[in-house]
Amino acid sequence: MAHALDLIGERWALLVMRELMLGPKRFNALRADLPGISANVLTQRLEGLEAEGVLVRRRLPPPASTWVYELTEWGYEAEPIMQVLGRWAARSPAHDPTLPISAVSLMLSFRTMLDIARVGDLSARIGFRFGAESYVGTLDRTGIEIVRGDADATDVTFAGTPPGLAAAVYGAVPLETLAATGVLEARGDAAVIARFLKLFPLPDKVPRTPRPAGEGGKVRGS
Prior knowledge:
By secondary structure, this protein is of the alpha+beta class. It contains 11 helices and 7 strands.
């Protein structure tokens, strides 16, 4: 555990890895999806993770010919770590659901929070379109697999913003309300749409423990 934190415990490191879990990204795309990170810090984290063998930097073939960052096979093995941390932290009463969420982060949250028992006999292809980014989810009783792909060749397509879809799934905000504000549109089989939105229940929050008067929250030594 201590060595794992040596590898990925620096601030932003795990979030950089999260953004690469569904495929390679350019430097500018990474920075755009990590609000608050500076170019200097992002460069440091990318260089550090590359030095440890977690990711690689490579040039795309023509006509793109741009540099991208991509997780190594070992780097991709960290997804279960992120899932456990995500489920654990979702129980925190201090979690702020209004913070920015990227498209990749939302897709990974679906892979993390899916309740298999609720899927039942449902089998469908779900499309997700967020501006220039699009993903396809294959959903059945074994789970949900999400990859980059054509979001229109699906049974259902959600188009809009990641926070908009998160509000529908995790906040139970009606689709009509989200459509009226222009942040989310759902097209396709209405029954599949309705079932999909209920497949990702959040765990109960941990009760806040009252702080003893006069202790100021400090931990006392033994």
